[in-house]
From TrEMBL:
It comes from Streptomyces brevispora. GO terms for molecular function: DNA binding. Pfam families: GerE. Residues 44-107 form a coiled coil. Residues 279-344 form the HTH luxR-type domain. Keywords: Coiled coil. Signal peptide: none annotated. Gene3D superfamilies: Winged helix-like DNA-binding domain superfamily/Winged helix DNA-binding domain (1.10.10.10). Transmembrane segments: none annotated. This is LuxR C-terminal-related transcriptional regulator.
């Protein structure tokens, strides 16, 4: 903006506040309008010169003022324009905005009524557990929508199984505002991650941040599935543990919720707090991760399947298997299983 125009606006409104912007008048048009009021005997060239505008800029401002009905042709001089008295022009602009606001408000109220009708019509079909206490929802978008609904309803407790291993920076960043909001409201948040997150610095940093905010975090070698329980009344369970974005089941059946809460408490008791370093079991000399890998090996799981369950790479599992073979003094997986049963690391068929 030209120097004189900037000084004009700054001198008229300290701090650069533009008084008439709320009425749809830009700073150049406002300066021209005020100059016309102060110098009604002038013409376009005079007003442009006073504001250090080009005549083209001044005429463009006049066009905008004309559309707002703030200037009109002079009755005394047909070739000149005059500024409309602000008591009339600005009042008319304000009345127009009030009419537009009233129309918008009426539109909002109509929309609100339509939304209320839609909720009343479709809520029985889309409410969690409609009819039976169980509802299947398909696709990641529907899951995210359901999570938003559940998160808005939580009052006291938020329980989570978080399989999948280390979290992506995008996911942790996106979850922080919601987590902070829930924790600041006094919601008790308990989350169980996989032990594998302990080797991922960004995920550990996020988990430590959650603890600082008041959350409780523990880890365990494997988790059965992704699970969220809200206030011990509603749960969300992944329909496919290997593809958690494919679909989910919303549960509000009281009996099933009781079982899910019991499962969570059982896993919580066996999980390690985040600040506690997992130590080998004195009876076996195996860490919980090694013991879980051994148990999955005995069930015939492949390296890839074990890696998925534990949230680590197949390469990491191959190293774990190699360490187990060495610890059990075995040359094969089969021999490792035999030695594990003999040493009571695993139950025998007769147990």
């Amino acid at each position: 903006m030209h120097q004189i125009l900037s000084e004009y606006v700054a001198a008229t409104f300290p701090g650069g506040v533009h008084l008439l912007s709320g009425l749809g008048i830009d700073s150049v048009a406002e300066a021209v309008y005020r100059t016309m009021l102060a110098r009604p005997e002038g013409d376009v060239a005079d007003w442009a010169a006073e504001l250090e505008l080009t005549e083209r800029e001044a005429r463009e401002a006049l066009d905008r003022l004309s559309r707002l009905a703030l200037i009109q042709q002079s009755t005394a001089y047909q070739t000149q324009m005059r500024a409309v008295n602000p008591l009339l022009g600005l009042e008319a602009l304000l009345a127009r905005q009030q009419a537009e606001l009233a129309a918008h408000q009426q539109h909002v109220e109509s929309s609100r009524a339509a939304v209320a009708d839609a909720i009343a019509k479709y809520a029985p079909d889309y409410a969690p557990g409609a009819g039976s206490g169980f509802q299947y929802i398909a696709g990641i978008e529907a899951i995210r929508e359901q999570l938003e609904i559940l998160n808005s309803q939580v009052q006291e407790e938020f329980l989570t199984f978080a399989p999948g291993g280390p979290q992506t920076p995008a996911n942790t960043a996106a979850s922080r505002p919601l987590n902070k909001r829930l924790l600041s409201r006094g919601v008790r948040m308990r989350t169980i991650y996989l032990d594998s997150i302990r080797r991922d610095a960004p995920t550990v940093s996020h988990a430590e941040w959650l603890v600082e905010q008041g959350a409780e975090i523990r880890t365990i070698p494997t988790l059965p599935n992704r699970l969220i329980v809200i206030d011990r009344r509603t749960a969300l369970i992944a329909a496919d543990s290997r593809n958690t974005g494919a679909g989910a089941v919303v549960v509000d059946n009281p009996g099933t919720i009781t079982l899910l809460c019991a499962l969570f408490e059982s896993v919580w008791q066996s999980a390690q707090p985040l600040g506690v370093r997992p130590e080998p079991e004195p009876e076996t000399g195996l860490t919980k991760q090694q013991a879980e890998a051994l148990r999955l090996m005995a069930r015939g799981c492949t390296d890839e399947a074990i890696a998925h369950r534990m949230g680590v790479s197949a390469r990491t599992i191959r190293r774990t298997v190699a360490s187990l073979l060495a610890h059990l003094e075995a040359e094969s997986r089969f021999q490792a299983g035999v030695h594990a049963v003999q040493r009571r690391f695993l139950p025998s068929d007769s147990d």
